[in-house]
Structure formats: structure tokens, C-alpha cells
DNA sequence: CTGAAAGCGCTTACAG
DNA sequence: CTGAAAGCGCTTACAG
């Protein structure tokens, strides 16, 4: 896309006095100025190899001289593509999505695509509205977080031939492609480690599981581990609460007021874990001496607090990048859309006590 | 925009078996189905009050029945508007931009606009490329961070009649509208407080000032306060470094190795301040007993570390929201584009010691 | 209040 | 390798 390289410099400025009235040059102007047809100009811009060098040079000179930039709408309409990818995430305010989205955008840009963004605030209704909105804006493909939503959404997208990719989850058997990790297995592994450390009284502060398959899978993973070890998965105290620091603090204090204090509180993500840590401080409990805490995600916060939080590291940036690449491959029909699994890894830190020592 | 309300439900599904081949219905299909002209259908969708209820109802029924959604490219081309606003920020990974952008997007959505996002990584060249890219994608207006950039950029935008708004700065005399706060006066006020507390030996860890007018203004604000108090603004040790926690830590240790240890290290933002705090811990210095630290922004991090960081609170969410509203007002020619000033406020916390007590 | 028709600025078979 | 021309699906004066 040569036209993408047009400098701001001299040309843009030259154009100015010639057309102070916003008469942006069109393909036609370029064609006339170069003495060729509009078809040839179009080819120079889109498939230069199909034009002989001699004329191509003349055309490109005219393009620069006039400071020509293709009209977006016309191009979209004729080509039926916008080179735009939409992403709908719960919120940009959580570092994991900000980070993933940043990497997603960078990868998109590297391939000549632009990012259209919307947020759902974890509300299915808002998400559906945003999906329609991005589709109406001509998104060539869509990135969504998680996969648990009304089937009508997927039908809507399929009817319009708009590729979707679900990130943050890995569902090999899904008919839609996914790029992510196994939330359930990850939490199960962490819980196993917690149990290995001698903990038997486990509580959980979970994100809201309704409409959030990642949160639900994490909770299920904890239950898996309990069952694996002959513990009663139904006996775990669980508090579900939106992912906010303050909520983690409140939930933690509530859990500690019960008759049997847990020896460890596992949290649905690091934000809740940091809140739990604060809650512990507020009621004078020492972590990990009095109670252990674990998180999920491994955001910066997890290593900044004292003690640092034992958590699951999730490769957010890589997930964003690979989601972008996979989605573009599908949009450009270069690939059928197989799911990609990324690995999480346990980060043992000060907030989890090994009761065996 | 009624068409925006089309449900996913029955209609989308009904359409399916009729056209398993992706033959998306067009305006023409609707017109034929309702027995009116395309002009009338278009009016029903865009200015319903100009169509008599009787026919409007018939048309809307056809719209729903066919599951019609306007073609984006055609609409853009004919209307010469995309209802899309572009934003280019340094990075989504800094919480302040993530938060501001989130609010910006929400406000955009409330007004029927969609957000196109790109990031510059604080690189002017990348930013210029992104500006061209978003313009090429038909952005109706642009949000940029700060105002210090090549004048050719503004000429380019003006030649294309694309409104720009600079956020994070407040420049009343600028010919472009700005929505933000006075970085220089804010830092000056905080530095004055620091001096009032008895500090005389002040050092600063600044962001890179080249090409970043916010960072430069903050440093200038510190110098202002020093001059105000008869101190030598040229004598302040200053280290400029990119906004990363680790850099703050390194810079802090470097500053502490000098002959005359500062009694306070003021940081260009909270990220650097948190890094400085970590640096202090690493070399066994106690904050604020051995040395004080201040930040800028008041992100969550500032209240999570121990001690909490004295900083300047900046209303990021409000800034994002008001920037969106101001920009749309300009795009829709409802307002001339006056700048809006927001206020920052000093948050005194544990990391700053009052030497007088 | 409604319709016929031009026009928006490209892309892309189809010829040559 | 290049051009004439149709067509993409809307919006919007202009008539009536």
C-alpha cells in the first residue's frame, strides 16, 4: 500500500494553496494528471506489479504531487473490505485486557489493519449491541473475550460471513476458533499445588460466573482439584463478586468471619487477590502466616504488593498478538481457523505458605 | 437509528434458510418488499419524521422482516461520514490511558460513535503513521495526547477538514482545542508543598521530555517552584527515563549514589514513583524516613504500595469523557472548540515526610 | 409526502 | 499492459 507511505511533508503543503477549499483530489484527478485511466491508477496503488514500471512511475509522481489519498468509503464499497478488525472486551481498565489489546493492535497494525474497539462492562446485552455496532462499521473480523454467549450472536455473524475469534479461552472442540489457555486446568493445577502445600481448608473469591466462562472455569478447576484429592468440592466457601480491589477486600473479610477460617483464599484474579491482601491487613491478619492468598493473571500489581502474590502467569501479550494473526489469517482466508493453546504457569511467591515446613 | 436496534433474534434466524448464501439484503430489497422507492426507505432510516407514519410502518416491517442492515461503505460514501472517531495514545498499558480511553469510548458510544484506536509508543514517527492510517479509515475526528508535534501534522489534518482535539494538556491560547489540566502548574503546586514541608534537596525522575510536552511541563513546573523559593532550578539532579517501573528503580538508585543525597525524589508519574519505592527497598532505605517520594496521576498502584504515594490526582475518566463530548460537538459543528480545563489535586500520603515535624 | 435519478469514488472483470 | 464501463449500495437535491 504505497499510498500509506505518503509523507506529511512538502506534498501535503503544496496542495494547500492550490486547493484551500477542501477539494481533496480523487482517483480521477490523478488519472487525468498522469494521462492514464482510473483503472491504471487503481492498479498502481493496489497491485503495482501489474503495471509496467514506466507508467507506474508517472502515476506515483502524480499521486505524490497531488497529495492523493484514497477515499475510504469508496474503497470499502468497491472492495467490500475495510481492513478494520473489531474487538470487544469487558473493560480496558483491567490491565490484562489493556495489555492484550495493546499487543493485538500492534499486530494488526503490522499487517495493515486498524482496530475498532468497544467494551461491554461484562454485560451480555451491551456486548451484543457493540457487536452489531462494529459489524455496522464494517469490521472485517471480530475478537471477543470468552465464548459463552447467545447462539444467535454466532448465527448473526455467520449470516454476514464475519469471522469471529474468541480469546482468553482454549476450546479445541468449539466450531469457532479460540486463542487462549485452559482456565479450568490452570486453576486445577494451582489448587493442586495449594493442596500439596498442606492446605485443606480452602475458600474462593471468584469473579461473577454468570455469563463469564473464564470465571466459571476457574471455579470448576478448584473443585476438580478438591475432588482429585478426596476433598468435598461442595464444601468450599465461595463468594462471587465483580473484579474490583475493594470487592476483594470485602469478600475476604466476610470469609474470615465464618466459624472455620480457611487457611488459604484463592482468588479469581489478581485484582481480587490484591483486595484480599488489603482486607487481611485491615483486620490485622498476616499473610501468609495467618492466611495464604493466591491470584490469577500475574499482572504487575501482583509483584508490587507485600508479600508478592502467588498466581498463575498468563501470556497476555502473546495471546493478543496471536489472536490478531490468527484472525487476519481467517479474514484473508489463509487458514481454516484452528484453535491455539497457550500455557499458563504457576508463579510461587510469598503470599502462599507451605504448611509442611 | 432504528436499524441499530435490530435484534439478533427471530429475524436474523429466519433470514437464514432463505439465503444460506450470504446474500445480505440491500436497500433495494427493502424498497421492493415494501413497495416504495429506495429514497423513502433511506428516509425512514435517517429522518423518519419526513415519512408519513403509514408508509414508515410498512417500511420498518420490511426492514425487520429481511433483517436489513445498511451497508457501511455505501453509507459512508454517500453521507461522507463514518460516525467513527480515532484516538492515538502512547500505550494502552499505562493505566491512565486505559482509563481515559475507556471513558472516551463509553461517551462516544452514548452518542452513537465508534472508536478507532492506535498507539504510538511515544514515537512521533509512529504517531504520524497512525494518524494517516486512521484518517484513511475515515475517522470523523481525532483525539491525540498532548499537543507538541510537527506543524505539518496539523496542516495535513486541516487540509482534510478533520477536527483534532488534544487531551492531557490545557492550552488556552492554542488554535486547536484542548481538554486537560495544566501539567506545569500542577507540578509546581506539588513542588511548593514539598518545599513547604522543609525539603531543600530535591531530585527528579522525569519521563522522556523530548516530544512529550506533558513530561517537559512537569519538569518545568518543578523548576518554577524552585525559582519561586529562591532555590537554584539548575541544580536539581534530573534523570529522564521511559515510564516503566524498573526504570524508576534504577534511576532512584543512581540518584542515591550521588555525593549529596536528595531528601525527596519527585517522579514524573506514579509508575516511576512505584519503581523508586522499590529501588529504595532494594538498597535498604526507608520511605519516608530516609527519603521521600512523590508521584503524578494517582493511579491505583499509588494507594496499594506501602507507604502509599503522595501524588497529584488527575481526573482521567472525566478527561476522557469530556474530550469525547467536545470532539463530537466539533465534528457535528455544534461548537467552535473552546479548550476545557480540568483540575488536578494534591493527594498527601505516607511517602512524603514533613521535615518540620 | 414520495419518487426518479444523479452522484459519491473506487475496483474489477472483460476486452483488446 | 491498459482502458471503457459496469457496478458497489447508499443519500440527497430536485421535482412533482
Write up what this structure looks like.
2 copies of one chain form a homodimer. Chain A is of the alpha/beta class. Chain A folds into 3 domains: 2-78, Orthogonal Bundle (434 Repressor (Amino-terminal Domain)), CATH 1.10.260.40; 82-181 and 316-342, Response regulator (Rossmann fold, 3-Layer(aba) Sandwich), CATH 3.40.50.2300; 183-314, Response regulator (Rossmann fold), CATH 3.40.50.2300. The first copy, chain A, is 45% helix and 13% strand. Chain A contains 14 helices and 12 strands. Chain A has helices spanning 10-18, 27-34, 38-46, 53-66, 72-79, 95-110, 124-136, 151-159, 183-196, 213-228, 245-256, 270-282, 301-304, 316-331; strands spanning 84-89, 114-119, 141-145, 164-167, 178-180, 202-206, 238-240, 264-267, 292-294, 311-313, 340-341, 345-347. A 6-stranded parallel β-sheet of chain A has the order 2-1-3-4-5-11, with helices on both faces. A 4-stranded parallel β-sheet of chain A has the order 7-6-8-9, sandwiched between helices. In chain A, strands 10-12 form a two-stranded antiparallel ribbon. In chain A, helix 12 (270-282) links the parallel strand 8 and strand 9. The longest helix of chain A is centred in the N-terminal third of the chain and has 16 residues, at 95-110. Mean pLDDT of chain A is 90; it is low at 1-22. At the A-B interface, helix 1, helix 5, helix 6, strand 2 and helix 7 of A face helix 1, helix 5, helix 6, strand 2 and helix 7 of B. Strand 2 of chain A pairs antiparallel with strand 2 (114-119) of chain B. Chain A binds a DNA duplex (16 and 16 nucleotides) through residues 26-28, 36-40, 42-43, 46, 50-52, 55, 70-71, 73-80.
